[in-house]
Amino acid sequence: MKKNFCSLSHIQLAFGFTLLASGVAIGQMRVITGTVKDNTNNKPISGVSIFQEGSDAVATTNSSGIYSVQVSGENPVLVFKHSDYPDRKISLGDRVAVDVSLGKESDKGSGSENEKAIEEVVLNAGYYKVRDKERTGSIAKVSAKYIENQPVTNVLASAQGRMSGVSITQNSGTPGGGFDIQIRGKNSIRREGNEPLYIIDGIPIISETPSVYSAAILPYSSISPLNAINPNDIESFEVLKDADATAIYGSRGANGVIIVTTKKGKKGRSELKLNTSYSISSVANRLKMMNTSEYLGMRRQAFQNDGITAIPAIAYDLNTWSQENYTDWQRELIGNRSDASVVQLSLSGGSDNTSYLISYGHQEQSTVYPAGFQYKTNNLTGNFSYRSPDRKLEVNLTNTVSFQDNNVVNDDLTKRSLTLSPNAPALYNADGSLNWENSTFTNPVASFVSEYLNSSSFINTGTQIAYKLFPFVSLKFNGGMTYNNFEEYSLKPHTMYNPSSGLTSANSNSSKNNSSSFSYILEPQIVGDYDWNDHSVEMLVGATLQQSETRSGTLQGYGFESNALIRNIAAAKTKVIGDQINNQYNYTAVFARLNYKYLKRYIVNVTGRRDGSSRFGPNNRFGNFGAVGAAWLISEESWMKNMSWLSLAKIRGSIGTSGNDRIGDYQYLDTYTVSTNIYNNITGLNPSRLYNPNFSWEKTLKKEVAAEFSLFKNRWNLSAAYYENTSSNQLVGIPLPATTGFPSIQSNLPAKVQNTGWELETSVQVLRNSKFRYDTSFNISIPNSKLLEFPNLEGSTYANQYVIGYPTTLVKVYQFEGINPATGLYQFTDFNNDGKISSPDDNKVIERIGMQFFGGWSNNLSYGPWSASFLWYFVKQRNWNYNRQMVIPGSMNNQPVEVLDVWSASNPSGTYMPYSSGSVAAKTSAHSFFQNSTAAIGDTSFIRLKNIQLSYSIPVREFGIKEAMIYVQGQNLLTITKYFGLDPEFALTGYLPPLKTYSLGFQIIF
């Protein structure tokens, strides 16, 4: 918690010795002793900071929870602080011995007191910290105790369902993938323009790793930057949402800001902590597919319906393969158990002036594919802090190093596991070689011979220095650097193909991409705070200088003497060198913040920032951003003081602008690409982009109003917020006539996207006696998005993609009208009445794809040494269903059992048209329309038991061990849905969904 160093009591303290010298008594000096314990398990707490309110002298409890502190005055107030507990204040009176218990609320007072703990939750807003009670902006927080409760490799998975307004979707169940995160909706028309700003220990990092070859296994080739951070090393995960919270980040805060703070050492004795766990994962759900009898019946009926009496020779499932064989391909191809092991060892400790934490974590995770693929990570964290004895100088050093190695199949087999014929031959011959069944079978596991590999090295180091120049003015400096080296291979040896084709290693190919980025940031700051009478002011003025350099290049090699050389592209007979790119990004800014409080209940927060970015043309390189936030603590009014049931009542609001420069480097310049044509031994250049000096920022105007209440001594908390974000100056490629020679020009389209919504949160401490405790929390978000403006939309190439007044996630589809009994074909509404179905004339139905509301219900229980927690995550949404990816029923592809509901004269209500082998053009065309119709969109809502944990604290203190705990955890254990498909949580169909996980772990602290 940030301590106010310029309070009136501190000014008094500064003159204390002068007053004593003049003979003015300020009270008798005395020493207070006692013990601090946890009121849940009655165990002593080490590392608790104790000081008299208004004094700089700090004492710390030892390993037995014992403290001794000197105080003065007639009725001094002691403050007890520990990062794992709410702060507590106690009025001493004339006592000299005080035992204290810390927890959510203490029922064990000292003497005759029944003191109430003070919920002083402190939020990290990036450039400053603020008490939750006094914040004017919208900041969501997930603390370490919730992050540690989940068997995940990325903190984003643990935050899912725990914060209102923050939608997190796991893109894939393949290890090392990415996440789609939206903070209060999508502001930009471009997908890549909606990424939030990531800050790790004060240092900004790139939002996605620039992968080139992973699209077949990872949706959008997305690899999350937070894969590099061990969730067990994270102290808190905060999300800045509204203008008041994000405007200080200027051009980078339009899509919200994610702040990750790693753990620091604590005062007290040294602590050695070992945490290890083992988990097993599997696909959470399987589609029920046709068995062999049903499938072969469908196939024969398809040929009969198409008027084909002689089964073609290539219909191997009917005339070559066994008619009795049955294989559950979901179980064979994606049905393995993925196991993961995690080991983490950390050492921490500190004294009154220094603290340290060193942590090492290692993780190995396999896949659900039937092969030995693995994802490995090694993380090293070292954080150190120092505070001078006079408390004027404070230095914090943060260091994170991560190494990741991922080895997975080059192609996701999820879709193949659903379409492969159930009577297809075995995967392997008796001798263990791949079975090609006399060239009648394309073996799916042949792709296991190919590989997709990536490795990354990530270093993030930061320094924060603060020096108190005067009691009310401090100088601060924040600086650091980030380095990331990413290398990936796509290896395709000839052995992944049927040997009958006669291929050799001369037909093997290898592709390599290497990308490295280095970024540093320097941020000098001046911080001031001053209190007088009923007024309080905090000021912050600073500047930012950031420079990033990214180097990337691709290589392809074709033809090798041996596959043993496939990773050495220099050994290839033919080499293709892609563009070797060197990008530089320069960013500079000045920013300021003024926070004013009157009577501790009227609060105004003003922030402003002027940014300059090298990504824009010289005419618009600089932009101004700012916000005003205000809060009224109604419960602090004198006429509210006698309402003992009301702990807090606050109304707050904000308005301001933030920007977006996520467009890539050099987009405003004339650019050229190297020509593939060589004339007279001269390689030419082709123009690829037009110059636009007016290219500038996307800007988002954010508004919010909110109310917060706390009732019955903070046992029941309620909050409600309404927001409105309007994003303009959309950074897109504006189409140009073909006569210009360019398809588009990068420019600012005067289109506007608006996101509005409600966010509701509540938490209740249901039971909180000394033995049994239960608290529950619930949040729900109701977002709404629409395109407000788009000049000349109807005449543009975006006409079939967007509609004014509708979300940007809409799709235009054909109106499905069932099956024509005369033709047996799907029929659709002919909107232009021209007698045929075509696009864009007939796909006029607007379907709103996306979430209607989402939220989570979290519960925590404890009884003595036992504790348990569980989280339900729910989403109401519409999206594509399995009909979207369904191959025409009757072709040589298996189908879900739902396809057995086929239309016929005896079954006029059947869902699917009569089967077809795919050889009749009219039927194939009708099925294509069906895949892009209202029939392929449906309810994809779900309720999911996202996480559950049960732990037991083993009584080991008598053996000199501080803590020992055994725990079991579960992730994605149960999903309730009517969705037609594998899993309702997805970014793109056809990829492996998130997995169901069971974990067993053990933790011991010495």
TrEMBL record:
Residues 133-257 form the TonB-dependent receptor plug domain. GO terms for cellular component: cell outer membrane. It is a multi-pass membrane protein. SUPFAM superfamilies: Carboxypeptidase regulatory domain-like, Porins. Its main location: membrane. Pfam families: CarbopepD_reg_2, Plug, TonB_dep_Rec_b-barrel. The keyword Ubl conjugation does not apply. Keywords: Cell outer membrane, Membrane, TonB box, Transmembrane, Transmembrane beta strand, Transport. Residues 428-972 form the TonB-dependent receptor-like beta-barrel domain. InterPro entries: Beta-barrel_TonB, Beta-barrel_TonB_sf, CarboxyPept-like_regulatory, Plug_dom, Plug_dom_sf, TonB-dep_OMP_SusC/RagA, TonB-dep_OMP_SusC/RagA_CS, TonB-dep_rcpt-like. It is found in: Cell outer membrane. Belongs to the TonB-dependent receptor family. This is SusC/RagA family TonB-linked outer membrane protein. The lineage of its organism: Bacteria, Pseudomonadati, Bacteroidota, Flavobacteriia, Flavobacteriales.
